[in-house]
Amino acid sequence: MDCADAEPSTTIVGTGSDTILVLEPKSFKPFKSKDEYLYAMKEDIAEWFTCLYNCCITVDNFFEVLETGVELCKHANAVRKFALERQDQLGNKSQFVRHIPNGEIQYKKAVKAQTFQARDNVSNFISWCRDIGVPEVLRFETDDLVLRKNERSVVLCLLEVARVGAKLGMLAPTIVQMEEEIDAELAGEPPPPTKQIITCDLKSLDEMVS
């Protein structure tokens, strides 16, 4: 599977500063095994990352792209930036904004997989996950990603990070969006509004979608 095959299904609504990008809803069939469910989660997160950052990530290269920790740390800093923008809008009204660390994650950009620098990047991301309140049971260890010791833990942690971003108003993977809609329905509330993408490079995204 190449990058062209990995382009997410998206809809662009509006123009200019009011442009909103949403992942197209898709139906999920019952999964026959845990492996099938893991594959679906990886696929969903890969489309989400591609949509947000126009990076070349697919189900097939999922862990190869993430194992240096660079994309993970970049996402953590994007969440921090988004949280700061929300803080300017909401002040101290949002408890989720207050839980985002103030400092950026420091990481090495040009690193090779399984090197000390790559492991350090991954470790910094895991520490950041702890700081934003991701429960220990949902956090992964460095070797879970670098050595593929527990791929499921990595995926579950990324979904939990996506839930934190969703509470701030960021775009979330389809699975997380569905969870929010179900929670709202059970609570008798209207479904959550469509998320506006502030972290997305719309110019590059327009090129990708076209």
From TrEMBL:
<feature type="domain" description="Calponin-homology (CH)">
    <location>
        <begin position="39"/>
        <end position="166"/>
    </location>
</feature>
<dbReference type="GO" id="GO:0005737">
    <property type="term" value="C:cytoplasm"/>
</dbReference>
<dbReference type="GO" id="GO:1904825">
    <property type="term" value="P:protein localization to microtubule plus-end"/>
</dbReference>
<dbReference type="GO" id="GO:0008093">
    <property type="term" value="F:cytoskeletal anchor activity"/>
</dbReference>
<dbReference type="GO" id="GO:0051764">
    <property type="term" value="P:actin crosslink formation"/>
</dbReference>
<dbReference type="InterPro" id="IPR036872">
    <property type="entry name" value="CH_dom_sf"/>
</dbReference>
<dbReference type="GO" id="GO:0008017">
    <property type="term" value="F:microtubule binding"/>
</dbReference>
<dbReference type="Pfam" id="PF00307">
    <property type="entry name" value="CH"/>
</dbReference>
<dbReference type="GO" id="GO:0035371">
    <property type="term" value="C:microtubule plus-end"/>
</dbReference>
<dbReference type="GO" id="GO:0001578">
    <property type="term" value="P:microtubule bundle formation"/>
</dbReference>
<dbReference type="InterPro" id="IPR001715">
    <property type="entry name" value="CH_dom"/>
</dbReference>
<dbReference type="GO" id="GO:0001725">
    <property type="term" value="C:stress fiber"/>
</dbReference>
<dbReference type="GO" id="GO:0031110">
    <property type="term" value="P:regulation of microtubule polymerization or depolymerization"/>
</dbReference>
<dbReference type="GO" id="GO:0051015">
    <property type="term" value="F:actin filament binding"/>
</dbReference>
<protein>
    <submittedName>
        <fullName>GAS2-like protein pickled eggs,GAS2-like protein 2,GAS2-like protein 1</fullName>
    </submittedName>
</protein>
<dbReference type="GO" id="GO:0005884">
    <property type="term" value="C:actin filament"/>
</dbReference>
